[in-house]
TrEMBL record:
The keyword Signal applies. It comes from the Bacteria. Residues 1-28 form the signal peptide. It comes from Gluconacetobacter liquefaciens. Keywords: Signal. This is Uncharacterized protein GlcG (DUF336 family). InterPro entries: GlcG_carb_metab_protein, PduO/GlcC-like, PduO/GlcC-like_sf. Pfam families: HbpS-like.
Amino acid sequence: MAFHRRIAACMLAAGTVAGLMNVAPAQAVGPAVITTQKLSWEIADQLAAAAVRICAARGWSVTAAVVDPSGHEQVIIKGDTVPLQSLSVSYRKAYTAYAYGMTFDKDTTSALIAAKVTGPPNGALNTIPQVLFVPGGVLLRRADRSVLGGLGVSGAPGGDLDEACAVAAVKEVSPRFQ
């Protein structure tokens, strides 16, 4: 009899363990798949081209970079005679406008600087490789203010001039951000 009770106990224990293994994990909060809105490559290309064209019409050869909502380069267009560093600077302006503009609800790198979002006096934020608090970056938004990425322009003789070209390009192309 004792032997049969031990067998029954073992079978009960095995059944309990098997039952526990088949229990579904706790449901995660929110959806399992996240979708992100971003510009198509065609619109991102039109935006960067518009910035380069607008600056060229004003006499400046620039590089324009568009970053997507992951902060990665989506499009980069270089003017014909831009300095080498304008490539990385335009990307860093776009990245900063996107990352910090979205966080602090500011539409340009100039607005971030004016709001003193540049970090503590020791410059700690400027030690992050992609961050550059210099005028010339614009946060890309839809009409409903949802964020799509960032645009950075570099190469004009001053960040304020870079930013003027970027703002003009966004104004020109943003009606297509639907």
